[in-house]
């Protein structure tokens, strides 16, 4: 028989420094947790009114042969829960005879106890979740294992390990495959950000190299062109040369290198996902979970909890689906409405800044309004994140999904959709609509007939998109990370202040906890209480704790890829953030939070589909940014059609000379339509010169040929979205077929369990 050989993909990851396995055997089964301080703990306040339900629930657990130890500490009551060996044996046997989980051997009992606790109701029908809402119990958690916790802290969960690989197998053995795959994905994503980060810096330096020598910059800085007023009443005409600095900044992000970088990022996003699939496949093969099915495992846990259980059938209601679809649509419209509110805010802010007494703000009113709008956008994102979570969870309840795996998938899709619109609706407006729907002198588009819409700078609109992205991304990464770390740390410190100081562990128990012991060995009561209290003081976690980490990173991936043409430094910011994020999440998970219930899986779930969709959208969005928002296409047209090099005879003149002037149209006050547009005082320059005409950015004399292709492209994507909605609306298999297979599988597992128990009884009469 051929010996076990490690997958080449894993060796490659270790060579790159993404992981650090130190020769660990990836196929090894994590050892059974020593039962020194029990599998699970329930915590309650001493309350006479709730004591009856506490006792009733504990009695239900005892009926299932769970061992329960009660320890009272001041106003807290701790219940240590420990499952007998028989429950674990039943679970392992059913895994062995199942269809999808039979290759894997699981040694972690925490999730079995977790499932039993959550699916044990009292006589009145209330589950543990209901009892916790009623404050019958205050907390529930599985316990950290001190020895493994200390090893992970030394090898992984510390700031000095930022540039080291991750011990993914050790993470898997302690937190389960689901958490390990998250860190493996995050490590691979961070490593692959190095090339785009370097190229993004090169693109930025390329723009910086031509900072002062570009003919476009010279044309703006040396122009004597008079531009039309940016607002009504108090705004006056202004000199194009006043915006010399803004034009230089625009060139840093809107140059020929940006186009090549956007093309590179489209290929990069695809390679990132394809290579991730290979690395994932290598690890799940080593862990023997390639065919693992979460829904089948949930069915096995139901039988372990209750041998006479009836499965929760698949259900589908067109009425419920229609209601969910309507609610999702309304929620998206509300989020888009907030984008419109941001537009109104920026328009009003620009007017107020332009009419203010501060000369600097008056001169740069549009840029100031854009920055204020970006800060307000971040505040809206912070508030809407909480609202989106509540709405997404309520919609999942309306759907009545059959299992937790189905609920998690449904919640992920809805939550990401809401968050995506919250983050990117405003950016899509800035990228594709800003400066294109504002009208022109004599026919300006106004909000409520009063405030003119925003205009782009003569050097282009891309800088506005860059400002918006930079502020949101920097604020999100810095503020989020600060709160993500200091929040749990402060909560732990506050709980320490509220509870009494822990006693030192006795020498006898200290030796037990630090060595391998026989089954049945326990800590003394004081040391049990010490262990339970130290875990109680940590921050709470739930089934969706890992979801929030994934959501944060996938939103960042969207920022890094979708509008990278406007912000080449986005991959660099993402790389720096992720190096910190990996250790921040590790420290938080190992030392500041209660232990997550270990869960098996063989992929990152629906997130891979979300990432695929983002990759496709990134290609489309960057193409539109280059074609619509950037001046790349107009510059090419000018160079080869209208510029001095169009006929190939002007060798001594730069081919882009006169480009800025070519992009500006003329507004003459002699036109009857313009006489009421600007007042006489607005047409006086800062030097006191009275002008009769001004310039504005537009091609009013040319036929508008860009709108129709863009319109049909957007329409095509609307049709694609409708296709996916229709596919979700109609189940891909009749529910009777699904339910028949479900009952067949359940009955087979019950029969296998009965025969297994009969053999055990015959072997031990």
UniProtKB/TrEMBL annotation:
<feature type="transmembrane region" description="Helical">
    <location>
        <begin position="553"/>
        <end position="580"/>
    </location>
</feature>
<feature type="transmembrane region" description="Helical">
    <location>
        <begin position="711"/>
        <end position="731"/>
    </location>
</feature>
<feature type="transmembrane region" description="Helical">
    <location>
        <begin position="416"/>
        <end position="435"/>
    </location>
</feature>
<feature type="transmembrane region" description="Helical">
    <location>
        <begin position="604"/>
        <end position="628"/>
    </location>
</feature>
<comment type="similarity">
    <text>Belongs to the anoctamin family.</text>
</comment>
<feature type="transmembrane region" description="Helical">
    <location>
        <begin position="258"/>
        <end position="276"/>
    </location>
</feature>
<dbReference type="GO" id="GO:0005254">
    <property type="term" value="F:chloride channel activity"/>
</dbReference>
<protein>
    <recommendedName>
        <fullName>Anoctamin</fullName>
    </recommendedName>
</protein>
<dbReference type="Pfam" id="PF04547">
    <property type="entry name" value="Anoctamin"/>
</dbReference>
<keyword id="KW-0812">Transmembrane</keyword>
<feature type="transmembrane region" description="Helical">
    <location>
        <begin position="368"/>
        <end position="385"/>
    </location>
</feature>
<dbReference type="GO" id="GO:0005886">
    <property type="term" value="C:plasma membrane"/>
</dbReference>
<keyword id="KW-1133">Transmembrane helix</keyword>
<feature type="transmembrane region" description="Helical">
    <location>
        <begin position="322"/>
        <end position="348"/>
    </location>
</feature>
<dbReference type="InterPro" id="IPR049452">
    <property type="entry name" value="Anoctamin_TM"/>
</dbReference>
<keyword id="KW-0472">Membrane</keyword>
<dbReference type="InterPro" id="IPR007632">
    <property type="entry name" value="Anoctamin"/>
</dbReference>
<feature type="domain" description="Anoctamin transmembrane">
    <location>
        <begin position="171"/>
        <end position="741"/>
    </location>
</feature>
<feature type="transmembrane region" description="Helical">
    <location>
        <begin position="182"/>
        <end position="206"/>
    </location>
</feature>
């Amino acid at each position: 028989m051929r010996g076990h050989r490690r997958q080449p993909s894993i060796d490659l990851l270790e060579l790159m420094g993404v992981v650090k396995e130190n020769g660990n055997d990836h196929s090894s089964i994590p050892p059974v947790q020593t039962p020194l301080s029990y599998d699970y703990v329930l915590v309650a306040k001493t309350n006479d009114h709730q004591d009856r339900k506490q006792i009733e629930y504990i009695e239900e657990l005892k009926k299932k042969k769970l061992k329960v130890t009660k320890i009272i500490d001041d106003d807290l009551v701790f219940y240590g829960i420990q499952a007998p060996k028989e429950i674990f044996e039943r679970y392992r046997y059913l895994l062995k005879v199942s269809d999808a989980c039979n290759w894997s051997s699981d040694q972690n009992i925490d999730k079995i106890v977790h499932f039993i606790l959550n699916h044990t109701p009292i006589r009145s029908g209330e589950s543990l979740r209901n009892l916790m809402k009623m404050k019958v119990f205050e907390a529930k958690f599985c316990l950290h294992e001190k020895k493994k916790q200390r090893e992970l802290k030394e090898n992984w969960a510390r700031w000095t390990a930022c540039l080291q690989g991750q011990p993914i197998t050790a993470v898997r053995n302690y937190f389960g495959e689901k958490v390990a795959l998250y860190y493996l994905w995050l490590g691979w994503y961070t490593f692959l950000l190095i090339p785009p980060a370097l190229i993004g810096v090169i693109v930025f330096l390329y723009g910086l190299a031509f900072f002062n020598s570009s003919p476009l910059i010279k044309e703006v800085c040396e122009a004597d062109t008079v531009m039309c007023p940016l607002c009504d009443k108090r705004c006056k005409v202004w000199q194009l040369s006043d915006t010399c600095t803004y034009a230089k900044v625009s060139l840093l992000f809107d140059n020929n290198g940006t186009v090549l970088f956007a093309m590179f990022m489209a290929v990069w996003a695809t390679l990132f996902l394809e290579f991730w699939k290979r690395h994932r496949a290598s690890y799940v093969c080593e862990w023997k979970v390639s065919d693992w099915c979460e829904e089948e495992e949930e069915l096995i846990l139901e039988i372990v909890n209750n041998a006479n259980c009836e499965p929760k059938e698949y259900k589908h209601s067109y009425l419920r689906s229609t209601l969910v679809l309507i609610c999702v649509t309304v929620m998206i419209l509300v989020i888009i409405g907030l984008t419109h509110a941001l537009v109104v805010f920026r328009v009003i802010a620009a007017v107020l800044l332009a009419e203010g007494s501060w000369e600097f703000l008056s001169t740069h009113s549009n840029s100031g309004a854009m920055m204020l709008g970006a800060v307000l956008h971040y505040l809206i994102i912070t508030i809407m994140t909480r609202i989106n979570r509540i709405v997404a969870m309520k919609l999942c309840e309306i759907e009545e999904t059959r299992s937790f795996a189905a609920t998690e998938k449904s919640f992920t899709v809805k939550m990401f959709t809401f968050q995506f619109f919250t983050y990117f609706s405003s950016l899509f407006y800035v990228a594709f609509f800003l400066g294109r729907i504002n009208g022109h002198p004599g026919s300006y588009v106004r909000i409520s007939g009063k405030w003119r819409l925003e205009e782009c700078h003569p050097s282009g609109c891309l800088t506005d998109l860059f400002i918006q992205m930079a502020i949101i991304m920097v604020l999100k990464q810095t503020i989020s990370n600060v709160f993500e770390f200091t929040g749990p740390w402060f909560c732990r410190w506050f709980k320490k202040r509220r509870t009494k100081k822990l006693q030192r562990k006795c020498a006898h128990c200290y030796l037990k906890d630090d060595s391998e012991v026989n089954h049945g060995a326990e800590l003394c009561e004081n040391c049990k209480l010490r262990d339970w209290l130290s875990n109680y003081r940590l921050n709470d976690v739930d089934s969706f704790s890992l979801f929030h980490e994934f959501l944060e990173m996938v939103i960042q991936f969207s920022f890094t890829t979708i509008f990278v043409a406007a912000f080449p430094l986005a991959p660099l910011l993402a790389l720096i953030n992720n190096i910190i994020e990996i250790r921040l999440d590790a420290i938080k998970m190992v030392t500041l939070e209660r232990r997550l219930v270990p869960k098996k899986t063989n992929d990152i779930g629906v997130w891979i589909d979300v990432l695929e969709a983002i990759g496709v959208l990134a290609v489309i969005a960057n193409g539109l940014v280059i074609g619509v928002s950037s001046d790349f296409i107009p510059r090419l047209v000018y160079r080869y059609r209208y510029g001095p090099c169009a006929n190939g005879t002007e060798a001594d003149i730069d081919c882009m000379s006169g480009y800025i002037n070519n992009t500006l149209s003329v507004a003459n006050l002699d036109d009857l339509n313009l006489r009421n547009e600007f007042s006489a005082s607005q047409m006086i320059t800062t030097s006191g010169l009275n002008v009769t005409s001004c310039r504005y950015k537009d091609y009013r004399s040319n036929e508008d040929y860009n709108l129709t292709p863009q319109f049909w492209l957007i329409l095509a994507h609307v049709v694609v979205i409708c296709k996916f909605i229709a596919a979700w609306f109609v189940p891909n298999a009749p529910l009777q077929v699904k339910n028949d297979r479900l009952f067949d599988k359940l009955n087979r597992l019950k029969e296998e369990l009965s025969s297994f128990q009969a053999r055990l009884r015959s072997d031990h009469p």
